[in-house]
């Protein structure tokens, strides 16, 4: 079962769930969760399934299994459907959740989501360097700067907090999953992009909006890279709260977010 962190009392329909990036844990959301709480939201930050190695992984584990764990956590809160925001790899889990458990979701936010297609091998090598604590600090800082952070932003805040075995497990889980999750069911979607995200060929990147239509809104945040959350937490909080007000208001009628 997932763990919840950074939560406070809330009213029905004002629940935001934050799902972290590949090989990262929920501590990445400490500042963002506090900002959202100040706006009156209850915030749940599930620890990634398998982080503590007590969860048994099967050879056919999929993103839908991870989504089911989050769905159970949402249902236990009894606060109505949630806005679910997934950062990088976490957005895959959010989409799987919206696909398989639509009643749990009022809308989803994709935070620094990569476009469809294979990852550039150079970027993948950079990710592997970041999470490899056998590499020198200088090497990892250089990789963090190139892969995750916009120029001028401090990459050292992500020097620690990596879980290599979790990355292996998450990658296997993703490879086991059919592409059904990509469209996120019928949920309203906010595609939050970072201007300096090296995973995007152009910003704004409108591929998902062209594919899924007007239920996708694109929001671009300046002075941020693929890490996004530690770089611009206030801008991310502002984007999520603006989207939440509309998405949650429409969740009962299943209207589209404009």
Topology:
Elements: E1 15-19, H1 30-38, E2 42-44, H2 63-77, E3 82-87, H3 89-100, E4 105-111, H4 121-130, H5 137-147, H6 164-175, E5 189-194, H7 207-212, E6 216-221, H8 233-250
Parallel strand pairs: 1-2, 1-3, 3-4, 4-5, 5-6
Helix pairs in contact: 1-8, 2-3, 4-5
Question: How would you sum up this structure, described in words?
Answer:
- Helix content is 36%, strand content 13%.
- It is of the alpha/beta class and 258 residues long.
- Strands 2-1-3-4-5-6 form a six-stranded parallel sheet, with helices on both faces.
- Strand 3, helix 3 and strand 4 (105-111) form a beta-alpha-beta unit.
- Helix 1 crosses helix 8 (233-250), helix 2 (63-77) packs across helix 3 (89-100) and helix 4 crosses helix 5 (137-147).
- 47% of the residues are buried.
Quick structural gist:
The chain is of the alpha/beta class and 258 residues long.
